[in-house]
Amino acid sequence: MFRVIVSHARRHPSLIPLFLIIGSGGIGAALYVMRLAVFNPDVCWDKKNNPEPWNKLAPNDQYKFYSVNVDYSKLKKDRPDF
């Protein structure tokens, strides 16, 4: 597959930016899915030691990718312990 891409790029140099943009988009999507699998509180990898990871979040933990106007370090606890 890589050999075919290189041969097309040698014959048609105008395809090089297309290959770079498509490749960087694929890498970015893979990194985002990996980030969701590792840092999202809805994903539970160890059900024996931590069956409900969403209950162990502190109110100042930021798990969203981007937050516009919320400063998570200044939030206080407003919910009961379970």
Automatic annotation (TrEMBL):
Its main location: mitochondrion. Keywords: Electron transport, Membrane, Mitochondrion, Mitochondrion inner membrane, Respiratory chain, Transmembrane, Transmembrane helix, Transport. It is found in: Mitochondrion inner membrane. The chain crosses the membrane at residues 15-38. InterPro entries: B12D (IPR010530). It is a single-pass membrane protein. GO terms for cellular component: mitochondrial inner membrane. Belongs to the complex IV NDUFA4 subunit family. This is Cytochrome c oxidase subunit NDUFA4. The gene is NDUFA4.
